[in-house]
């Protein structure tokens, strides 16, 4: 079974465009949970363009003991204003999972994963601390990545495959090569003892093909397309549609 973790960043984008509290991120989370999702994802960024530190804390209190809570972000981005940094937030709220992503500051969205051979020494102390906090750690990687045994050796339990290139290839009607690269990568990660998550630009259109190609896919985190589709069909119906695809 593949867990659906709904990324609520885009609810916060809409709310922040006017200030105030609407649309309410906790109400959106509640709707997703009632519709059957297995997790909620947020990706706070230092510029606070969408999910803010206080959202991370409020959601943590609301979700505890109900569904998985996945916080994504760059662990090396410096604290800025009242953004305390990803690891500081993890220390405070102890989410189920922390997904480390090598975004640069101000990047419009995530567009690549870690180079495990190059980055592993820098990641090691962070992964150790997060594991000691009781968080599962997942590392964002590109399709085609190698060196998964290095990630397993420092205590990471999962990788998240960056699916942007697959989504783009699917939209162009030529997904085979990108899909095969994801499938090979997933197999290598699983052989190294890691579980495999996936995310970025997954949608109702491209998810079924992806899921069918990746045996043992543990989790997908989906936000941009799902929240967009929810404008037409409603949030609960949209979440149920995704769950149907993942069955
Ligand atoms: C790591 C990843 O692929 C997602 O977290 C994605 O980057 C969503 O972040 P934004 O909503 O900031 O684009
Ligand atoms: N980890 C991917 C994620 O949380 C959502 O990415 P997207 O669906 O907003 O592209």
Automatic annotation (TrEMBL):
InterPro entries: Aldolase_TIM, PyrdxlP_synth_PdxJ, Pyridoxine-5'_phos_synth
Annotated positions binding 1-deoxy-D-xylulose 5-phosphate: 45, 50, 109
This enzyme's EC code(s): 2.6.99.2
Pathway where this protein functions: Cofactor biosynthesis; pyridoxine 5'-phosphate biosynthesis; pyridoxine 5'-phosphate from D-erythrose 4-phosphate: step 5/5
Swiss-Prot/TrEMBL keywords: Cytoplasm, Pyridoxine biosynthesis, Transferase
Catalytic reaction(s) noted: 3-amino-2-oxopropyl phosphate + 1-deoxy-D-xylulose 5-phosphate = pyridoxine 5'-phosphate + phosphate + 2 H2O + H(+)
Active site, renumbered: 43 (proton acceptor), 72 (proton acceptor), 200 (proton donor)
Cellular component terms (Gene Ontology): cytosol
Complexes and interactors: Homooctamer; tetramer of dimers.
Job description of the protein: Catalyzes the complicated ring closure reaction between the two acyclic compounds 1-deoxy-D-xylulose-5-phosphate (DXP) and 3-amino-2-oxopropyl phosphate (1-amino-acetone-3-phosphate or AAP) to form pyridoxine 5'-phosphate (PNP) and inorganic phosphate.
PANTHER family: PYRIDOXINE 5'-PHOSPHATE SYNTHASE
Protein's UniProt name: Pyridoxine 5'-phosphate synthase
Gene coding for it: pdxJ
């Amino acid at each position: 079974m593949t867990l659906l973790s709904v990324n609520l960043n885009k609810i916060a984008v809409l709310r922040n465009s006017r200030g105030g509290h609407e649309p309410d991120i906790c109400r959106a989370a509640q709707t997703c949970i009632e519709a059957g999702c297995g997790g909620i994802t947020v990706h706070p960024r230092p510029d606070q363009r969408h999910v803010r530190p206080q959202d991370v804390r409020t959601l943590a209190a609301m979700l505890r003991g109900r569904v998985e809570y996945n916080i994504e972000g760059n662990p090396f981005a410096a604290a800025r204003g009242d953004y305390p940094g990803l690891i500081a937030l993890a220390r405070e709220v102890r989410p189920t999972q922390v997904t480390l992503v090598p975004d640069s500051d101000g990047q419009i969205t995530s567009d690549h994963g870690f180079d495990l051979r190059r980055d592993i020494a820098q990641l090691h102390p962070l992964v150790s601390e997060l594991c000691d906090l009781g968080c599962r750690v997942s590392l964002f990687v590109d399709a085609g990545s190698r060196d998964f045994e290095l990630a397993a050796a420092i205590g990471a339990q999962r990788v998240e495959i960056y699916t942007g290139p697959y989504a783009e290839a699917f939209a162009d009607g030529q997904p085979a090569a990108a899909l095969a690269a994801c499938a090979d990568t997933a197999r290598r990660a699983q052989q190294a003892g890691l579980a495999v998550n996936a995310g970025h630009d997954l949608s109702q259109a491209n998810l079924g093909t992806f899921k069918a190609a990746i045996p043992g896919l543990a989790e997908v985190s989906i936000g941009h397309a799902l929240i967009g589709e929810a404008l037409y069909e409603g949030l609960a119906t949209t979440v149920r549609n995704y769950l149907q695809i993942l069955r």
